[in-house]
């Protein structure tokens, strides 16, 4: 691991900030773009309260009644990645963002928020309680995704929904299926964008990061997630980010060192938007990904990062799976996606494994690429049409 990679790891840890409500804008942005929007809440079995945002119709139907717009419509649920939230699927606007394009294509779109985002709370715990942050994507799969899916089915009256995940949103799917295989019956199909299951490529970074014992030291002080005031975050972005000169921009260079370099697909303010809307990552989330990287196994949390290795059961997946990856993605590398593809192919559920057409396509491009509409969103919407027609009963 070189010095640039180490500095980037520290940089990303610092920016896993606890962003306030003012920085998270999903419902306001959806309404401002001319789409109908609804807020829904669901409570997990372990007491977390999660908000889900619904776009029940495209802009052309925004003035019509809700019953006309949603009756019999096919539903799609979108799950965000690590440090992400529902706003990731609308941030690039109606012409490019997947949430809007699916709504305009006639789908009933639901944008999930997993525990830890500003759109989550707990019945008995506050965000200042250490216990609030004692979760990883294991709990996302065991509790959050099932609660969200059940809420969508309850509101819509449908028997099945379509699941689309990005990065950790894909990890959530596979952990859910391993622990809750009954949810196969509630899904039409699954599209995994930048699937984060096998991560041998981060083994060196994970070993080093976990060896310095930073997280145990912070835990001794009662801290389970890195937090930063909006004022401090704004100061750091203003100091280190130079959008007008991307080649000299420290924020861009450090980010691309982690996710893969792609200056051609960089929209001028992309990095600032990405950084200022980051959601907190619990230490356990980071440690759990580290455990997968260190062991080379898609393993459950069990006794902690150095504890027992217990592989998640991928043979429990029974719905059709399509994998989408970037040729230049340095976080979820192509070789690791292909390893997952072989596992799914062996059980007969792999629909396809395809690379995005731009050769420099990196991890963040699935959300923030300048041409994300043509490279990802519209092709994914067409793929949803095809899979719904093929598999929906």
Automatic annotation (TrEMBL):
Family matches, as InterPro entries: AB_hydrolase_fold (IPR029058), AB_hydrolase_lipase (IPR006693), Lipase_euk (IPR025483)
- Look up the signal peptide feature and give its range: 1-24
Q: Which SUPFAM superfamilies has this protein been placed in? A: alpha/beta-Hydrolases
Name all Partial AB-hydrolase lipase domain ranges: 28-92
What is the originating organism of this protein?
Answer: Loxostege sticticalis
Is Phosphoprotein set as a keyword in this record?
Answer: no
Q: What keywords would UniProt list here?
A: Hydrolase, Lipid degradation, Lipid metabolism, Signal
How is this protein named in the record? Lipase
Family affiliation: Belongs to the AB hydrolase superfamily. Lipase family.
Q: Which PANTHER family match?
A: LYSOSOMAL ACID LIPASE-RELATED
């Amino acid at each position: 691991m070189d010095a640039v990679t180490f500095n980037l790891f520290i940089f990303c840890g610092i920016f896993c900030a606890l962003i306030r409500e003012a920085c998270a804008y999903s419902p306001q942005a959806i309404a401002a773009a001319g789409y109908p929007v609804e807020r829904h809440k669901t409570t997990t079995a372990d007491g977390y309260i999660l908000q889900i945002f619904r776009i029940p119709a495209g802009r052309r139907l925004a003035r019509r009644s809700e019953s006309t717009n949603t009756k019999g419509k096919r539903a799609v649920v979108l799950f965000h990645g690590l440090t992400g939230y529902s706003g990731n699927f609308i941030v690039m606007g109606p012409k490019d963002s997947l949430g809007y394009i699916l709504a305009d294509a006639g789908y009933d779109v639901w944008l999930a928020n997993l525990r830890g985002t500003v759109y989550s709370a707990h019945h008995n715990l506050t965000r200042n309680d250490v216990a609030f942050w004692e979760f990883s994507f294991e709990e996302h799969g065991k509790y959050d995704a099932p609660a969200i899916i059940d809420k969508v089915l309850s509101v819509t009256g449908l028997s099945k929904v379509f699941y689309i995940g990005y990065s950790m949103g894909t990890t959530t799917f596979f952990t859910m299926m391993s622990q809750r295989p009954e949810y196969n019956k509630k899904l039409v199909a699954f599209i995994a964008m930048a699937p984060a299951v096998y991560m041998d490529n981060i083994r060196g970074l994970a070993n080093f990061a976990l060896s310095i014992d930073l997280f145990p030291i912070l835990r001794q002080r009662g801290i389970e997630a890195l937090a930063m005031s909006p004022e401090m975050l704004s100061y750091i972005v203003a100091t280190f980010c130079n959008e007008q000169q991307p080649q000299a921009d420290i924020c861009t260079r450090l980010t691309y060192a982690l996710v893969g370099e792609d200056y051609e697909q960089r929209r001028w303010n992309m990095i600032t938007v990405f950084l200022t809307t980051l959601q907190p990552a619990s230490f356990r989330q980071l440690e759990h990904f580290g455990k997968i990287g260190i062991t080379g196994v898609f393993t459950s949390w069990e006794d902690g990062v150095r504890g027992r290795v217990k592989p998640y059961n991928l043979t429990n997946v029974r719905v059709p799976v399509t994998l989408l990856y970037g040729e230049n993605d340095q976080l979820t590398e192509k070789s690791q996606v292909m390893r997952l593809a072989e596992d799914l192919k062996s059980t007969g559920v792999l629909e396809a494994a395809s690379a995005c057409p731009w050769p420099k396509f990196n991890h963040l491009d699935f959300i923030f690429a300048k041409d994300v509409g043509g490279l990802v969103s519209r092709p994914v919407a067409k793929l949803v049409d095809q899979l719904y027609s093929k598999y929906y009963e």
